[in-house]
Amino acid sequence: MLNRFSALLAALWGGLLLSVAGLAAPSAFAVLERAQAGLVVARLFSLEAQLSLGVGLLLMLMARRRARDRGLPPISAEFLLPAGALFCTVAGYYALQPLMAAAKAGQGAWSFMALHGVSLGLYGIKLLLVLALAWRSTAAKAPAQITDPAKSS
Q: What is the rounded distance in angstroms from the CA atom of residue 115 to the CA atom of residue 92?
């Protein structure tokens, strides 16, 4: 059950990332004035970042639980992929957004476009990590072997 919920959560997370970046943001800029579209997209990415923190942490906890239940090492691809996506969220949104706001106001060493490019790159990496996690989650897993101590003696 935990495997199926993890796969579903990873797939929904990937779908959210694709929808925000591939549909919602371009659509906002296509139909709204640039300033209004920027406000709408900023709100979308704010909500996406908050959701990503929660979903990523939940998937990491679930990966740790599955590893513990199976007697496997706690650090695995199923743990590292959402951890990498969380890093990209924190760096790409929470660290760069204040710098981007300062760059818009003419402050800071980097231009807004340079920071936007870095943010876009981190979002792309996060998307690839989440899609890889969703893909790996659909792989057929061998059922855990239940050993009967009475039979092994």
A: 9
Read off the DSSP letter of residue 106: T
d(CA 104, CA 85): 26
| Domain interval for residue 129 | 2-139
pLDDT tens readout for residues 105-121: 999 899 999 999 999 99
- Count of structural domains, the chain: 1
Query: Are the CB atoms for 64 and 74 separated by under 8 Å?
Result: yes
Alpha-carbon distance values, 111 to 10, 58, 100 (Å)? 34, 35, 8
Residue 153 lies in a domain: no
Is residue 7 classed as helix, strand or coil in its secondary structure? helix
The runs of H, that is alpha helices, within the chain are 2-19, 25-31, 34-70, 77-89, 96-104, 112-137, 149-152
pLDDT single digits (tens) 68-107: 998 888 899 999 999 999 999 999 999 999 999 999 899 9
Model pTM?
0.86
